[in-house]
Amino acid sequence: MTDLTSGLALRRPALTQRLYPGLALAALAGLGISLTTGVISLPLNEVLSALTAPWADDANHALAHAVLWELRLPRALMALLIGAALAVAGAAMQGLFGNPLADPGIVGVSSGASLGAVMIIVLRIDTLGAWTLPVGAFCSGFVTTWLIYLLARPASNGGDNSRLLLIGIAINAVAGALTGYLTYLASVEQLESLMFWSMGSLARVSWLPVMTIAPLTLLGLLLLRRQAVPLDLLALGERQARHAGVDVKRLRLKLITLTALLTAAAVAFAGTIGFIGLVVPHLMRTLIGPGHRHLLPLSALGGGILLMLADLGARSLDPPNEIPIGILTATLGGPFFLWLVARRRGPEAN
Fold first, then answer.
1. Which of 7, 21, 149, 336 has the highest CB neighbour count under 10 A?
2. What gap in Å lies between CA 316 and CA 72, rounded to an integer?
3. What is the CA 210 to chain-centroid distance, rounded?
């Protein structure tokens, strides 16, 4: 397998090795900025004191402890987790479909998961209590991913990658239409929740969602990382992958399940946040090449950092109001992606 995947070897191994500590330091710096910045500014020394002593020992530091432990720290950690999940799901989906434009938002997976959540809210479904919403979003995202796969699966002679984008546009349109109809039926008090699902936000994050999504995300990242070599072989072509011993059907089932898990978990707790899964893997692929061994973990780091900084902007640009985070990621990600496409002309773009 190593010989077959040699064509996908790293373009710049030295740069790749430097990216790990560089992105780790960037994540720590972003976390520090996120914890100290906001409507209430907290000095760094006070943040460090609160982190090392989770319970305030006097009234003078009670506010800092409350802001840090009840608001900013769970929110920053949630941004890191969701950003990592969306970026890795995007990288895996691009490998699965053999298309660098695949992304949970563009091909309709996020819209499908969001539609499931909206249906639960508007139809007032409460079968599983507090778990109804995330389970419903996951099931909806999983079904949507399978539907896209069945409709866009390439033929044995290679298929047409543009088919995926056309189907994604159709899935997005159908999901958007159904979401719009449910919004029309929603009550006034449900509209606020629907805005949350359609534009994305981390404003409602507490420790319980963080503790819920953390094992799902980490498990998904770990299991996807183990599929790096089969993904490289699949990139060489389905026939070559089969000759190398890859069970392509089983591999696709694993990838679909894991990307649906990561995407649906992210949508279930943060709403629809687009472009993270498109821009970050594309940028990392530009820097280090298409090999998934490093592309997946570096995309996770980059996605977490990008979403954490986007969340910082969402709550800092117009205080005390918050800009929906999905608006910021689309505003920044769309032009950036256009710049990448325009900059990298030619067949070597992948």
1. 149
2. 12
3. 15
User: Residue length, the chain?
Assistant: 350
CA dist 44 and 33 (Å) reads: 9
SS (H, E, C) 145-190: HHHHHHHHCCCCCCCCCHHHHHHHHHHHHHHHHHHHHHHHHCCHHH
Contacts 24+ apart (CB under 8 A), 123-132: none
Give the pLDDT of residue 57: 62
Nearest to 141 by CA among 101, 111, 182, 179: 111
Instruction: Indicate the DSSP class of residue 56.
Output: -
Residues 6+ apart with CB under 8 A from 94: 100, 101, 102, 103, 281
Q: What is the pLDDT of residue 348?
A: 47
The number of beta carbons lying within 10 Å of the beta carbon of residue 22 is 13
Measured distance CA(346)–CA(318) in Å, rounded? 41
User: For all residues of the chain together, what is the average pLDDT?
Assistant: 81
Largest CA distance in the chain: 70
Q: What b/e sequence results for 46-76 when a residue is b if at least 16 CB atoms lie within 10 Å of its CB, and e otherwise?
A: bbebbeeeeebeeeebeebbebbbebbbbbb
Query: Cα separation of 284 and 57, whole Å?
Result: 45
What is the per-residue pLDDT across 191-248, written as a single tens digit (0 to 9) for each?
877 777 777 888 878 888 898 889 988 999 999 999 999 998 888 877 888 888 888 8
**What sign does the CA torsion over 105, 107, 113, 119 have?**
positive
Query: The whole model's pTM is what?
Result: 0.85
Q: What is the CA radius of gyration of the chain?
A: 21
Give residue-wise pLDDT tens across range 310-342: 999 888 888 778 888 888 888 877 787 777 667
**Residue type present at position 143:** V
- Render 125-149 in DSSP notation, one character per residue: --TTGGGHHHHHHHHHHHHHHHHHH
